[in-house]
Amino acid sequence: MKTRIDWVRENCLLLRAITQEFAAARPFAGKTIGTGIHLEPKTVALLLTLQSGGARVVSTGNLNSTQPSAVDYLRAEGVTVIGGQTTELSEHRRNLAAVLDHRPDLLLDNGGDLFDLWRERRFPGLLGGTEETTSGRMRLAPLRAELAMPILVINDSPIKQFAENEHAVGQSVLESYLRITNRVTNGQRVTVFGYGACGRGVAANFRAANAKVSVVDRDPVRRLEAHLDGHDTPGRDTALASADLVITVTGARGIIGPADLPLLKDGAILANAGHFPVEIEAEAMASAPAVARRSSFADGVEELELTDGRRIRILAGGHMVNLAGPRPMGNSIESMDLGFALQARCLEAIALGQVAASDCVVPVPRRIDEQVASAYLTMRYP
Q1: Sheet strand arrangement including 212-216
Q2: Environment class of 102 (CB within 10 Å of its CB; exposed 0-12, middle 13-18, buried 19+)
Q3: For 281, what's the count of Cα atoms within 13 Å in the CB-facing half-sphere?
């Protein structure tokens, strides 16, 4: 019987075409690509595409999102996978260091972990690479002068912004909430922290599921955009106090913490859709004096019972809710196919010397955006 990974690979039409092209052209021949990325079925398709281009691929996962089936599949295909699923930051950092021990020529980073660690463990020959996320770009941008190599930020591509972040993240967060909780969205008050592309998608999908959505953002221009999109934009404390469900998707640290416990209503559910598990201070909240008891349900739901009897639920321990919890599916195949086609083309351009060192922590070149968009549309409207 074919696996879900086989289904994903079959439906990643862009990556299938690039795989055939790379197998002939071998743009990565003799090179090692080091990656630290969510290891799930769609990333399997990407890593095997890079391998088809002659690369030796060395990979590890991210915190709490590594799927054992993906690890087994990759190893069976000859990819070096370091470590397994972990929620321990120290173990994750050791795995990243082990990737760098292979002295890769290119890095495919997710959150800036590998490039940041490379600064401490420098070795010659690193040509550059890609960064997948907004969180990673925020982390690496101040380090441009020190990095001084081509690093293309996939998340700054307009394709990534609208196809994956807005449409797919919003869809997958809603799907994950329904799958984990099996709770109604109709008539529920949902507060979304952050109104970038991902926040817009989350807010739109929950409103389409008949929830009453409020948006909190520090940027008044984004709050205005949310208001004109039809969402409520009350003050932060008012938005928290009214929420049945709170979703963080900001890329920032400490968005919700112990100080917010007095504001939350009985039965409120907290979920994080940002890359790093730092937006909801789950451990600090669980250890707060206001918490009388901590317990867990079977399907990725933790409950904090407060001394006054209120109960607060946290999904997936504050980790990325659409890639954690039971049967994590992540974003849609087609959206990831687009984003990973950008990854493959950007790494190809760096390997072939088509990008300058001055292109350090910058968006995907326009020509690559156009190449990927044209290929996607041609496949569907030949």
Answers
A1: 212-216, 189-193, 245-248, 269-272, 311-315, 301-306, 291-296
A2: middle
A3: 14
AA letter at 20: Q
pLDDT of 257 reads 97
Same domain, 270 and 294: yes
In a shared domain, residues 60 and 167: no
Q: What angle do CA 124, 130, 134 make, to 5 degrees?
A: 130
Strand partners, 173: none
Is-contact 126 100, C-beta < 8 A? no
How high is the pLDDT of residue 219? 97
Measured between its terminal Cα atoms, the distance across the chain in Å is 32
Number of domains in the chain: 2
Task: Kindly report, residue by residue over 284-331, the tens digit of the pLDDT.
Answer: 999 999 999 999 987 789 999 999 999 999 999 999 999 887 788 889
- Is 74 among the domain residues? yes
Report whether 352 contacts 26 (CB < 8 A).
no
63 Cα distance to chain centroid: 11
CA distance 63 to 5: 20
With a CB cutoff of 8 Å and minimum separation 6, the contacts of 367 are none
Distance between CA atoms of 327 and 330, rounded to whole angstroms? 9
Give Cα separations from 57 to 34, 78, 94, 107 (angstroms): 6, 8, 18, 10
Q: Tens digits of per-residue pLDDT, 257-274?
A: 999 999 999 999 999 999
Per-residue buried b or exposed e for 69-86, using 16+ beta carbons within 10 Å of the residue's own CB: ebbebbeeeebbbbbebb
Of 343, 349, 347, 338, nearest to 373 by C-alpha is: 338
Residue spans of the chain under pLDDT 50: none
Q: What are phi and psi of 29, to 5 degrees?
A: -55, 130
3-state secondary structure of 211: coil
Tell me whether residue 209 is exposed, middle or buried, using C-beta atoms within 10 angstroms of its C-beta: 0 to 12, 13 to 18, 19 or more: middle
Residue among 207, 261, 196, 197 at smallest CA distance from 232:
207
- State the residue range of the domain holding 265: 161-319
User: Are 208 and 307 members of one domain?
Assistant: yes
Inter-residue contact 339 to 333 (CB < 8 Å): no
Are 15 and 49 contacting, i.e. CB atoms less than 8 angstroms apart? yes
